[in-house]
Design a protein that fits this description.
136 residues; mainly alpha; 5 helices
Length: 136
Amino acid sequence: MKLTSKKMMAVIGLLAAMLFAPVLEASAQDVPSIPRKTTVKKTKKVKKNANVVWGTDYDYLSTRYIDYDDISGYDRGQIRVLKNSIYARHGRIFKDAELREYFEQQSWYHGYRKEIPAGEFNKYENANIAFLLKYE
């Protein structure tokens, strides 16, 4: 099969777009690293709640399933922050001082409850929490 210069330029353009397109919603250097100190219980599958805080760097964790490519450059502490950002967006108050301090510095965070009620997480949040637990 003969490639014309037009086809060749299209292939080069496509390859360049694939190589240089941003892969992650937030880069690894934007997410702080906070090591895990305690074990976490798995959550039950629950429905979406309209009272979730939106407009954060972590919104994508509530709107799509993440995969290994999303976290490949992150260390365990950064993955811990990602997982707990789902809880923070639902208003959880953290017992762990480092997590509490980090999220209290975020303008969008307003902790007002110790635990998130059953039925509050949507299908993406449930799946992403379980996924992130594997790598934390």
